[in-house]
Request: fold
Amino acid sequence: MQYSAKQSYITHTHFEVLKPIDGDGLLVRNKFTKKEAEIRLYGIDTPETKKTRKLIQDERETHVPGQLLIELGWRSFSFLKSITPPGTDCTLIQERNNPTDAYGRLLAYVILPDGSSLNELMIKRGYAKPYDKILCNELSKYRKLNFAAKKQKKGLYAYIGRF
Reply:
């Protein structure tokens, strides 16, 4: 992940993954303070894993049956669990202008031990799409990565053209 000198970021180090929650959410804990936080991966969206209001909205917008979206949501969740098992060290990076979402979850880019961005990986591998309902500095990059994943039929795009 490249940082723009014009943007203001907050970096939180020394976190570990307690457990993935769904395809775009994690429960993490600070290794020193033991304080836990729910993270919503910033700038990305994955299908839901259960029937929710958002699933009904996604079903209406994409014209994809809810049951198929749920199956795709579980595939995203499985991929996330495979690359961030409990105990995975991570660093959280937040944009100062949007630190939390409407549900009080921390919006963050999650940086893995090898320096890669979990948010980017989810899109590159085709298990997430860009989320544009909240302003994100990485949105244009995520759109390009999503286009390439879709064109190459990676991840969920191997099953469906949009989700």
